[in-house]
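Why show two proteins at once? Because comparison is the fastest way to build intuition. When a single record is shown, students tend to memorize it. When two are placed side by side, the eye starts asking what differs. So, the first record is below.
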Amino acid sequence: MRARGESLTDWARVDAMTDEDIERAMRDDPDWKDHMDIDWSKARMVFPDKKKAISIRLDPDIIDFFQATGKGYQTRINAVLRHFVDEQKRSKS
């Protein structure tokens, strides 16, 4: 199904769930344990900026290290660079 671009989610089952069903499922999910009592009423949707494609030369061992971490390695490289930039800005404040 995924190869054909179809969703693997049973949306009819999701649409049929009540708020109580959703809350019960969340309370039974250990991944939600620390997030159940958070006030999400002021949460806002954040969309990442569009990425800019560039060509960059990196040392082979750097590329090998990040590629060995699996899919999403370019995102992790971006996160490392983002952290560096944020720290540089913070230290100049």
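Second record. Ask yourself what differs from the first in the token line.
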Amino acid sequence: MSDASVSQSAGSAVRLGLKENWRQFALLMLVNAFVGGMVGIERTVVPLIGPEEFGIESTTLVVSFIVSFGVVKALANLVSGQLADTWGRKRVLVLGWLVGLPVPFMIIWAPSWGWVIAANALLGVNQGLAWSMTVVMKVDLVGPKSRGLAVGLNEFAGYLAVGVTAFLTGYLASRYGLRPVPIYLGIGYAVVGTVLSVLLIRDTRGHLRLETSAHAQQSAPISFREVFALTSFRDRNLFAASQAGLVNNLNDGMSWGIFPLFFASFGLGVERIGILKAIYPATWGILQIVTGPLSDRWGRKGLIVAGMWIQAGGLFLTAATSRFEWWLVGSLLLGLGTAMVYPSLIAAVSDASHPSWRARSLSVYRFWRDLGYAIGALSAGLIADRFGLSSAITSIAALTFLSGTVVAMLMRERSPH
């Protein structure tokens, strides 16, 4: 048997590569589309439920549901890698879906804003476990040569679903109200995603063992504490990626909570807000089909730096204007910049991590990245309450530009091979 495959059971073999594993890869893309759709049901509608149905005037209180989501998702990410290595990838994926099943029902029936906050805590667990596993399993399947492509396709499926669902919920809300009709989509996503994960998805630890067998061995086992320190601050590449991931999702958390309120303050209707909220993640999702493979060919650093600066430009443009057309351009720039950054960061973390602790390193990176949701929503809410919505957007834009500069100064290009 060649070194590209290893016996898994009688009559079967494990092989690395997209072509060799396209059926499972495609199924994982479909599952991640449903994972993304669970977030998409909230992008347009939920920030408007607070002031319109519960009479909440504080921007900080309105975005509190994103804070609960971000903190819990970050913590779920942190444990997902360890659980994946001990329990197996598929079990963690299924667990994520089981936790997510109640979410749309809680939002539909919520008698108070506290219910929405609690639902988003469960959604954070769902996203932290389920989305993490779709990333880790795809990286396991394709091997080291196509990590950027694998991540790009994964994030394409997830964030295209976010965008499409944001548009659909805005359309449905303009005709049937903010609840319950737009949230029915979430029930369908949760049920189908759970069924597919239980019945059709297979674990990928055999692929991980194959890659590890061909990789230089660690001189000694590495603890989770050591992985956390390496990914957070000790390794310059991993630190650069972690801080950029945090700031990337910090501006995403801000846009999630602040943009609908900002656009509505100029009299924009919920259907057109839905269009703007859809353009950003849809552009982000679609372009990752291109930017993921480009990071394999061109390298990670240049795409990350340019992407962070383009995001900053989109945010500055949004804050400085008051017309739908300019906001549309700002959303497109934000989506383009994020598409350049997102798969490149995950691939850069994978490049800098040994296969034996890659899942744990990715979980630490995703902990810092998704903690950005909470930090972005909370800080933007506080700034908006004190200085106005436009000032909140401008502040986050400046921080995004600074983060790109940190990557330009610290990150060193590494070969994924």
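One difference worth noting in the second protein: The two ends are 22 Å apart (CA to CA).
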